[in-house]
Specification:
Distance between the termini: 43 Å
Oligomer: single chain
Mean pLDDT: 86
Structural class: mainly alpha
Number of helices: 12
GO cellular component, one term: plasma membrane
Protein name: Lysylphosphatidylglycerol synthase TM region
Shape: globular
Main location: membrane
Pfam families: LPG_synthase_TM (PF03706)
Number of strands: 0
Largest sheet: none
InterPro entries: L-PG_synthase/AglD
Number of domains: 1
Length: 291
C-alpha cells in the first residue's frame, strides 16, 4: 500500500474513533446537571491545573533537549519551547498533516544539518520513554487501589509491570546505545512530567469538588493517555475511559466525564497558541551553554 495512502487512512480512522466515541459519550450525559457543576467550579483550582499542565510541557521540552544535545544540537530553552508549542499545534489541529513530532525533526534537521533519521530516532525515544514512565506510574498507583479480584492477582500485575519497565529500559539502552545514561535521566524527567499532569488532573477534580477516589481517577487518566494513540490527539478515548470507569466504580458519570473533557479542552486551548509560530517564524541560534 502507498505510504501516503496508508497514513491518510490511519488518520481518518483515528479521527473517526475520536468523533464516534465523543459523540457516543456526550449524548449520554445529563447536560443540565453538568451546567450546575460548571456554575460552582472553583476558578483557583482550575487555574492551578493549567499551571501544572504548562509545567509538565516545559519539562517535556527539557527532556527533548536532553537527547538532541547528544547529537550536537545546541538550542536555547526558549526557542525549543516555541518549537515544542508549534508541534503541539500540529498534533492537535492539523489532522493528516506532517505531525508535530515529525515537524520538529524536520525543522531541526534542516536548521542544524543533522540526519533526519537520527532525529527521528530521538523523537521516537522521547515518546517511548514517556510511555514507559506512564506504565511505571500506573503500577505504583495500582498499589493503592482496591480491585474487585484477588489481591494476589493485583500484586502479580504490579510486579510484572515493574520488572517489565526495568527490562524495557535496559533494552532501550542497548538499542539507543549512543544515549546510554540519558535514557535513565529521560525516564526520571518523564516521571516528573506524569506527576505534574496528575497534579493538573487532581486540581481539575478539586475545581469540581471531587474529593474521593482520587487514585482511581488518576489511574484512569494514565490509562486513557496510553489508549489515546488509537484516537486523534486522545480525544474521545479519554472521555470514554472516564465514562466507563464511572460505571465500573459507581461514580457519577457526568462529573467523571467532565473531568476528562476539561483536560482535553485545556490541552486544546494551550496547543492552539502554537499557531503564533506559524506566522512568526522561529529563529534558531546555537545556545552558548556548554553540554
Amino acid at each position: 500500500m502507498n505510504p501516503k495512502l496508508k497514513k491518510s487512512l490511519l488518520t481518518i480512522l483515528k479521527i473517526g474513533v475520536s468523533l464516534g466515541l465523543m459523540a457516543w459519550v456526550l449524548q449520554r450525559l445529563d447536560w443540565e446537571h453538568i451546567g450546575e457543576i460548571f456554575q460552582e467550579v472553583n476558578i483557583f483550582f482550575f487555574g492551578l491545573s493549567v499551571v501544572f499542565y504548562i509545567a509538565s510541557q516545559l519539562v517535556s521540552v527539557a527532556r527533548f533537549n536532553l537527547f538532541i544535545r547528544k547529537i550536537g544540537i545546541r538550542i536555547s530553552f526558549w526557542t525549543n519551547s516555541k518549537l515544542y508549542l508549534l508541534g503541539m499545534f500540529y498534533n492537535f489541529f492539523i489532522p493528516g498533516g506532517i505531525g508535530g513530532d515529525a515537524y520538529k525533526a524536520y525543522v531541526l534537521s534542516k536548521a542544524y544539518k543533522k540526519s533526519l533519521k537520527s532525529l527521528g530516532k530521538i523523537v521516537f525515544l522521547d515518546r517511548f520513554i514517556g510511555l514507559v514512565a506512564i506504565g511505571f506510574t500506573v503500577c505504583i498507583l495500582l498499589v493503592f487501589i482496591e480491585i474487585p479480584y484477588s489481591d494476589y492477582l493485583k500484586w502479580i500485575v504490579i510486579l510484572v509491570g515493574l520488572i517489565g519497565v526495568v527490562i524495557v529500559l535496559r533494552l532501550a539502552n542497548r538499542f539507543f546505545h549512543t544515549h546510554k545514561k540519558r535514557i535513565y535521566w529521560g525516564f526520571l524527567y518523564s516521571i516528573l512530567i506524569q506527576g505534574l499532569q496528575l497534579l493538573s488532573v487532581w486540581c481539575i477534580m478539586q475545581s469540581f469538588a471531587v474529593d474521593g477516589n482520587t487514585v482511581i481517577y488518576l489511574t484512569m487518566f494514565l490509562i486513557s493517555s496510553v489508549l489515546g494513540i488509537v484516537s486523534f490527539a486522545g480525544l474521545g478515548i479519554r472521555e470514554a475511559v472516564f465514562y466507563y470507569g464511572a460505571h465500573w466504580f459507581n461514580f457519577n458519570e457526568n462529573t467523571s466525564t467532565i473531568i476528562a473533557l476539561s483536560f482535553s479542552l485545556m490541552t486544546a486551548a494551550i496547543s492552539f497558541l502554537g499557531i503564533i509560530f506559524i506566522f512568526k517564524k522561529i529563529q534558531f541560534q546555537n545556545s552558548s551553554k556548554p553540554n
